[in-house]
Amino acid sequence: MDRVPGTPRRTRRFWAGALVSALALTFAGAGQASAADVNNARNAGFEAGLGDWTCSANSGTTVSSPVHGGTAALRATPSGQDNARCSQTVAVRPNSTYRLSAWVQGGYAYLGVTGTGTTDVSTWTPDSGGWKQLSTSFTTGSSTTSVTVYTHGWYGQPAYYADDFSVFGPDGGGGGEPEPTIPGTPGGLGVSGTTSSSVSLAWNPVPGATGYTVYRDGTRATAVSGTSATVTGLAAATSYSFRVAATNAAGESPKSAAVTARTKESGGGGGGLPRHAVTGYWQNFDNGAAVQRISDVSAQYDIIAVAFADATGTPGAVTFTLDTAGLDGYTVDQFKADVRAKQAAGKKVVISVGGEKGTVSVNDSASATAFANSVYALMREYGFDGVDIDLENGLDATYMTQALRALSAKAGPSMILTMAPQTIDMQSTSNSYFKTALNVKDILTVVNMQYYNSGSMLGCDGKVYGQGSVDFLTALACIQLEGGLDPSQVGLGLPASPRGAGSGHVSPTVVNNALDCLTKGTNCGTFKPSRTYPDLRGAMTWSTNWDATAGNAWSDAVGPHVHALP
């Protein structure tokens, strides 16, 4: 969050716009695989090391962990001008259609084929914390008897992993892998966690399986590549039955024995909030926006984040000092009374830690303890309902998780826990901020990502979007919604006026359209999510002060819309 109006945060160059977009292809005549179809790739699971594979600049090696199937996988590391390309020449038949697929994780990963004699194709995915299947299809030309399949990463990005390649189609005579058989039934299905609108499940791996399908009350709920899944969009305080089946190219196994789970009365932390909520940051300083007391904040705001707590000389510890002089003589006693009055009206008031200039660092057990103890002391002193994490200069997922869990143990289940990461922080579940949010999901109230002061970013569909549009909001929110957060834990953060941020301000109409798109599937831009998220928490703004400067135009338009969501 910006303390100085109209001053952009450090420039963030994001090279994603230079990436090649995955090709969306439709092939006439591509139908069901025939009985003669095989996987024509050799050493598809790297069980024989790098046999049959060639990797550029010695960038590839085999590892025993992580693996998708079997006992080995490829690890390839881009370096300098080398993108870690690993390839294999595969025998194929002319005038035939093949399905090319592989499982990847880690850094940016590409999968493609050249030498088809028709149209060479490729697909890709941004970095992933878990195994993800890439898949595309190609048709060979009239004289094509071999093709080159490949995978590679991207310059300057972390290593990627690849496993279980498949070039599935008519036998090209090159001695590929044997046709798979239907995997066995998964065992050990159990419930690993619940919220008011989600159930998390885990089960034992099945040899030969490349994926798993989860069924809720007999209906397909989701499909995953690993041995765990979270089913979202559930009703609170309701019992559901779940089963899981293993899958591969040969088909689906019989379903497992059923387990029953009951969702909680309220999801994450922060009981007492409305189903859909509006968050606003209140400025404890004068930067040209309207000076406010807590009592001046519009009633449209359900969560008021007091900005900011400050670092002390003790690593991890924070303090809060009311800027009485800058706030026209606002006293501590008046502040505390106003906090109590907002709470009596059903609102929540939290202390925000960080901001653009925040220097709080939690990077070991001692600083984690200091953070928890000092924040809890502020909650007791000022009556705050919880804490907001707005650390814009990086955080350590391990120790911030430790700190927040220690704080929750002190404050109890009613503690409000909010976060306000930047867009770059939530591009992948492997990012520290995203990891932290998932680590504390059972006590997390809402993540209000800042959709401003940002460069262009990737949406969940792999396309690049620029800030300032409905698509930017919805396609980026989709990453969080499909990446493990409950919809009730996702909000859209925007500046209240053009003066509230260096860039990224949009009209309240754009915010409301994005909310409609995500919750109801209406008023979308070019991007439309594959499903709706009626439990989406709501919206956030920086700040209540800039909102007041503009006559509360933002909260008067967005607030009633949020509260009227389904």
Give the key terms.
single chain; 566 residues; alpha+beta; eight-stranded parallel β-barrel; six-stranded antiparallel sheet; 8 helices; 17% helix; elongated; EC 3.2.1.14; polysaccharide degradation; glycosidase
Explain the overall architecture:
The structure is a single chain. The protein has 8 helices and 30 strands. The protein is an alpha+beta fold and about 575 residues long. The radius of gyration is 26 Å and the shape is elongated. Keywords: Carbohydrate metabolism, Glycosidase, Hydrolase, Polysaccharide degradation, Signal.
What low-confidence regions span 5 or more consecutive residues with pLDDT below 50? 4-35
| Structural class determined from secondary elements | alpha+beta
Roughly how much helix do the residues carry, as a percent range? 10-25%
Mind summarizing the main beta sheet?
A: 8 strands, parallel, barrel
Share of residues in strands? 25-35%
Average residue pLDDT: 88
Provide the spatial order of strands within the biggest beta sheet: 20-21-23-24-25-26-29-30
**What is the approximate shape?**
elongated
Q: What is the radius of gyration?
A: 26 Å
Q: Counting H and I runs of at least 4 residues, what is the number of helices? A: 8
Give the beta-strand count: 30
Termini distance? Answer: 30 Å
